[in-house]
Write a structure and sequence with these properties.
heterodimer, A: 339 residues, alpha/beta, eight-stranded mixed beta sheet, four-stranded antiparallel beta sheet, 30% helix, B: 329 residues, Rossmann fold, 12 helices
């Protein structure tokens, strides 16, 4: 797969190195008010995130709405420019790329969106939608372009004869397949999937999850899989990062996270997820979190979760806990972690 | 067995569309007993919400073509609009998925929560507001007296849903219909609201119909469930039995297709192939047969009726009614 034509800054990158390295990333949005629209504050959407994504793995990113998971996903593929911090992709610092170099980078990464209704232009045919990235990057022309579009449709499980149809002729699941075909058109190595199945019917979700897994092994893709549904994320991910108010609270392998969460937020998130088994549901002990997520405009001092944390003590308000290792790729940011 | 509180009998609700009549609810019958929590599960377009709206006679532009909704000896499908106004909000309350669109943005929250009391009990503003504030406190809204002065947009999603529940409960209705009450909420807030609904059910003894697409939610909330597909009930029974031994291939396949948080190993999911049916153009026979792994010839010809299969369950499936066990790789 041809990679972006970005000059390496350090030694040559190999697939043994992390594909993506995010360090101390901050993405803030300004809040303006009044007649003069003066900036009166900032939404700290992503507020100091460190994350590493290895080549070929799927990292799941979970958290509640407003925790900054979509913003982080968008920043990582540079749909947003970071306020502070660094994003290293294949060994290159892409944090502030612009112009032609940013465009070249776009060939190597793609995004799959949540809403298969809003993310496809209703006036474009399926062929136009899937063909657009091919045209933009001058990847193929004429017959070769047509063949490529048909092949992409076949790969995602759509009938290649559908090229001249419009999005409204398709169901939600089929539209999501069109969105996936479009993402694959540039032959990316990295795809950010932002809630790719939450708008779909329950019986269709499994079809799309299986498709994403099949494509991953076929094209050796690396995924950042963003979702609020921890069951789905645990199924598809090698590792899971749990976000709360712009910060990563815990990172671990899926089973490890489920069996032995260290951060109180992860534990309460897990206990809040209903399991489709009445026998288990009856026996489960729940820790029901009180209150709502605090405002990202004025996040709590110290640990952001402390205002809802059942284990919070004085110290939690004074200092921000760093992500610390609990062995075996398990990290958590908590002064009083669970056993 | 106790006398059912609410009895839906052979309900048919149709909608007129450009492409013809759509049978959104096509022969649905069930009973709700005092104090129980009944789950209705199914995907979008299966008719679960239209069933609930038909009970409240809020199905318009849909039309109740036939069937009865028996509530305390009266047939609600025959009630006048005036009589229905007495039932709605007083004896049967309903809460919806999106609490923002169900609250009026220009009135103070307390005033809105108190409205059923003014309307149904004829209470004055002061008396109804005092009672509304008390109810807001009981559904877990901190500093209820002050918050009653706020407008809906000043509440978070979870708090708004609490407000809706408080409004529904002010007149202590006998039935609460909750249509996807937690779908728009985050999981930790969902857990809070489900906990509140459990508490309401115990404290007030309100019988609840919980409509959801989330199998996990019904598993933890309902003793009995109804599974709907394409406007019909395909399976019904005690939740534990339906989950342990589903007697309809749709329920069976649905349970296998969802990833579980407590799964030990990574196995590929087993999706239900194909698409949910188009209600305008339903396949002949059983609506699920084009997606069914167990179908026999009869399934594409005749519509199976809902019949007893096993000791406790009802299923509308020719295959299981003939005694075949649902098993698969």
């Amino acid at each position: 797969m041809p990679s972006a034509t970005v000059k390496p800054l350090t030694r040559a990158w190999t697939t043994a190195d992390p594909l993506v390295e995010v360090s101390d990333l901050k993405v803030w949005f300004s809040v303006s008010s009044g007649v003069l629209q003066r900036t009166v504050g900032h939404v700290h959407a992503v507020d100091g995130v460190d994350l590493e994504i290895k080549t070929g793995e799927t990292v799941g990113l979970v958290g509640e709405s407003g925790c900054g998971k979509s913003t982080l996903g968008r920043a990582v593929i540079r749909l947003l420019e970071p306020t502070e911090g660094k994003i290293i992709f294949k060994g290159d610092d892409i944090s502030h790329l612009r112009g032609e170099r940013l465009r070249a980078l776009r060939r190597d990464m793609a995004m799959i969106f949540q809403d298969p209704y809003a993310s496809l232009d209703p006036r474009q045919t399926v062929g136009d939608i899937v063909g657009e990235p091919i045209d933009v990057h001058h990847l193929a022309k004429g017959k070769e372009r047509q063949d490529r579009i048909q092949e992409l449709l076949r790969v995602v499980g759509l009938n290649p004869r559908f090229v001249d149809r419009y999005p409204h002729e398709f169901s939600g699941g089929q539209r999501q397949r069109i969105g996936i075909a479009r993402a694959l058109a540039v032959e990316p190595s990295f795809i950010v999937c932002d809630e790719p199945i939450s708008a779909l019917d329950v019986s269709i979700q499994a079809q799309i999850i299986n498709l994403l897994e099949r494509l991953q092994s076929k094209f050796n893709l690396t995924y950042l899989f963003i979702a609020h549904d921890l069951s789905v994320v645990k199924h598809i991910s090698n590792r899971i990062a749990v976000m709360y108010l712009g910060k990563i609270m815990e990172v671990a392998g899926g089973s490890q996270l489920y069996r032995r969460p260290r951060h109180p937020y992860t534990a309460s998130l897990l206990s809040a997820i209903p399991i489709p088994d009445p026998v288990i549901e009856l026996r489960r002990e729940r820790t029901i979190l009180q209150g709502d997520v605090a405002s990202p405009i004025n996040p709590p001092s110290g640990c952001r979760f402390r205002t809802r944390c059942p284990r919070a003590r004085e110290h939690c308000a004074e200092e921000v806990p760093a992500l610390e290792s609990f062995g075996d790729e398990h990290k958590a940011a908590c002064f009083y972690p669970l056993d | 067995m106790t006398q059912p509180l609410l009895e839906v009998q052979d309900l048919h609700t149709v909608f007129s569309t450009k492409e013809g009549w759509v049978k959104a609810v096509d022969g649905v019958s069930f009973e709700l007993h005092p104090g129980e929590t009944l789950g209705i599960v199914g995907e979008s377009g299966c008719g679960k919400s239209v069933t609930a709206l038909s009970i409240m006679r809020l199905q318009r532009p849909g039309l109740i073509k036939s069937g009865h909704v028996m509530f305390k000896g009266d047939d609600l499908t025959k009630a006048t609009e005036d009589e229905m106004r007495d039932v709605r909000g007083k004896e049967i309350a309903m809460i919806f998925q999106d609490p923002m669109t169900s609250l009026n943005p220009v009135f103070r929250t307390g005033w809105q929560v108190a409205e059923p009391l003014r309307l149904h009990h004829g209470w004055n503003a002061k008396k109804s507001l005092t009672s509304a504030i008390n109810m807001l406190g009981r559904v877990g809204i901190p500093s209820a007296t002050e918050r009653a002065e706020d407008y809906p947009h000043q509440f978070s999603g979870g708090m708004r849903q609490r407000v809706m529940i408080a409004m529904g409960l002010t007149t202590t209705p006998e039935v609460l219909i909750a249509d996807e009450p937690t779908t728009a909420l985050d999981v930790t807030i969902q857990a809070q609201i489900l906990d509140l609904l459990r508490h309401v059910n115990q404290e007030f003894g309100t019988a609840t119909i919980l409509i959801t697409h989330n199998l996990g939610v019904v598993a933890g909330m309902c003793k009995r469930i109804i599974v709907m597909y394409a406007g019909r009930i395909v399976e019904a029974g005690p939740t534990a039995d339906v989950f342990a031994h589903p007697k309809h291939p749709y329920t069976w396949a649905l349970l296998r297709s969802i990833p579980r948080l407590d799964a030990e190993r990574h196995e590929p999911l087993k999706p239900i192939e194909g698409l949910p049916p188009n209600l305008v153009d339903l396949p002949g026979g059983c609506a699920f047969h084009p997606r069914c792994a167990f179908k026999i010839e009869k399934c594409s010809r005749d519509v199976p009726a809902l019949q007893r299969v096993g000791d406790t369950q009802l299923s509308a499936c020719w295959v299981t009614q003939a005694g075949t066990e649902l098993k698969g790789a």
